[in-house]
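Explain this one:

_____
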Amino acid sequence: KRVLVFFLMVRRPPRSTLFPYTTLFRSHKIKNIVLAGMQTQMCLEATTRAAYDYGFNCTVVGDACATRDLKYGDNVIKAKDVHNATLASLSGYYARVVTTEQLLKEYTEK
């Protein structure tokens, strides 16, 4: 039986947003977590890495995540570059990164 848990991160948490739910997930034998949200390089990335560290299989829905331009010194890093770099760093090791279309197809087939 497949179980889908979906987090939508919309603000910066004081710590990983996964932590309070870990025991609950394990008690229900949830092993696979699907994540999406705002900001890609903040809440989404932190929660994905924490979930992986706690032993969960993570799927990130890349086109259901977003961020904003960042400024570092005199440099402006475009949101698209921040977003893509974060997904690239998560992909393959911490998570499987898919599109919304891929996810829906995967969960509606059979």
User: Anything to note?
Assistant: The chain has a mean pLDDT of 85. Helices lie at 22-27, 40-53, 79-90, 100-108. Residues 40-53 form the longest helix (14 residues). DSSP finds four helices and six strands in the chain.
